[in-house]
UniProtKB/TrEMBL annotation:
UniProt-listed InterPro entries: Metal_Hydrolase (IPR032466), Phosphotriesterase (IPR001559)
PROSITE patterns: PHOSPHOTRIESTERASE_2
Family designation: Belongs to the metallo-dependent hydrolases superfamily. Phosphotriesterase family.
UniProt cross-references to SUPFAM superfamilies, sorted A to Z: Metallo-dependent hydrolases
Modified residues annotated as N6-carboxylysine in this record: K144
Top-level taxon of origin: Bacteria
Descriptive protein name: Phosphotriesterase-related protein
Gene3D superfamilies tied to this protein: Metal-dependent hydrolases
Keywords of this entry: Hydrolase, Metal-binding
Pfam families: PTE
């Protein structure tokens, strides 16, 4: 057993219950929100988030992992305010989310930069994990990085290496946003392994966007968990194909490598909410409980296998 940091305080890993391993409370362009407040109604958004997370809890989900980090508008005081009203564990993350370049601060500060010195990402990540995020005292429970269609750009590599170094020194587990289209999970996995990361403590995020079983089993054979974590995002991969991929992996003996989620958010300001609902009406927190699990059961997936994906695999990931 291990203690897992959550927004409401530390929780024993044995008490996480059923876990969705990749969900967001808020994904915001925080600088725009601060400077153009007419675009945002704080009370409305908090109430909406509370309602959506209560609906999720009513389906028997006990914990969500929220990999909202720098680059995605992380603001823990708002999440904490929501969590005060919902009996749900929320595990926050540290890291940096970029597909290409880091902001100017990092261009000028760090090893070999204009202001030569220690890598600032390392101090930031360690502080979030060991002391708390943004003066809240809420500690991060995992590390997050990303590699997408642009591939391993210099700054993406810099973030991955900083995540790896922090993992080595703290033991914190890692989740990586990847692109199934260009199989970037393999690139991330190779670099992290070279940097000394325990791949059994790595979730290859958005692996479930792929139906390529050779790609998926290669990732799993190296030790990592596969994030079957975009259920509801049907325009990226239809529902039936996502379900059948999980069924096929279970049939091949990979149940111990699968975690489930939606990658949904209470509010995402990248595109209008009505457009999200028009293109992906099932991209909501309750989709797995209401639609995916019944579909898996109908295809022969057992309750024991579902518990492995929702309870035992997440617990093992967080135990050190």
């Amino acid at each position: 057993m291990s203690v897992v940091p959550t927004v409401r305080g530390p929780v024993d890993s044995s008490r996480l219950g059923r876990v969705l391993m990749h969900e967001h409370v808020f994904v915001l362009s925080e600088e725009l929100r601060c400077n153009y407040p007419r675009r945002w109604d704080e009370e409305e958004r908090v109430a909406d988030a509370v309602a959506k997370l209560r609906a999720l809890k009513s389906r028997g989900i006990d914990t969500i992992v929220d990999p909202t980090v720098l680059g995605l508008g992380r603001f823990l005081p708002r999440v904490a305010r929501v969590n005060e009203q919902v009996d749900l564990h929320i595990v926050p993350a540290t890291g940096y989310y970029t597909y290409t370049e880091l902001p100017f601060f990092f261009q000028y500060n760090g090893p070999g930069r204009l202001v030569d010195g220690a890598e600032p990402l390392l101090e930031m990540f360690r502080t979030d994990l060991e002391e708390g995020i943004g003066g809240t005292g809420i500690r991060a429970g995992l590390l997050k990085c990303a590699i997408d269609q642009p591939g391993l750009t210099p700054d993406v590599e810099r973030v991955l290496k900083a995540v790896a170094a922090t993992h080595r020194s703290t033991g914190a587990p890692v989740t990586v946003h990847t692109s199934a289209a260009n199989r970037s999970g393999l690139v991330a996995q190779r670099l992290l392994a070279e940097e000394g990361v325990d791949l059994t403590k790595v979730v290859i995020g958005h692996a479930g966007d792929s139906t390529d079983l050779d790609y998926l089993t290669t990732l799993a054979d190296a030790g990592s968990l596969l994030g079957m974590d975009r259920f509801g995002l049907d325009d990226a991969l239809p529902f039936e194909q996502r379900v059948e991929t999980v069924v096929a992996l279970v049939a091949r003996g990979y149940t111990d490598h699968l975690v489930l989620s939606h990658d949904a958010a209470c509010h995402l300001d990248w595109v209008p909410e009505d457009r999200i609902q028009a293109t992906n009406p099932r991209w909501v927190f309750t989709h797995i409980s209401d639609d995916v699990l019944p579909a898996l059961r109908a295809r022969g997936i057992t309750e024991e296998q579902i518990d492995t994906m929702l309870i035992h695999n997440p617990r093992r990931y967080f135990e050190r």
